[in-house]
Specification:
The protein has 83 residues and is mainly alpha-helical. It has one domain (2-82). It has helices at 2-30, 34-49, 54-63, 68-82. The radius of gyration is 16 Å and the shape is extended.
């Protein structure tokens, strides 16, 4: 019974990863903005967080709740520091 449950979980995980890849490819083909791609990736990561126990879930969700504007400012700052 546990083997069947683990198998179903593995299949679900593979399907989610495939959907994420399809989403990223579709987004790039359709010319989505950086913000749309960022938001899609964050949402997929949050879905993965839902599989975790409560204490880990809360920390995981906090890690992936940063608004795009904050991410973009940090990215620009790091980019400037490199050059």
């Amino acid at each position: 019974m546990a083997l069947i449950s683990a198998y179903k979980e593995l299949i679900l995980e593979l399907k989610m990863k495939r959907m994420m890849v399809y989403g990223l490819v579709f987004s790039s083909v359709m010319g989505c903005s950086n913000q749309q791609v960022y938001n899609a990736i964050q949402e997929n990561r949050k879905v993965e967080c839902m599989k975790l126990p409560v204490p880990e879930y809360e920390e995981c969700m906090q890690d992936y709740s940063r608004p795009y504007d904050e991410y973009e400012q940090e990215r620009k700052k790091l980019k400037q520091q490199r050059y």
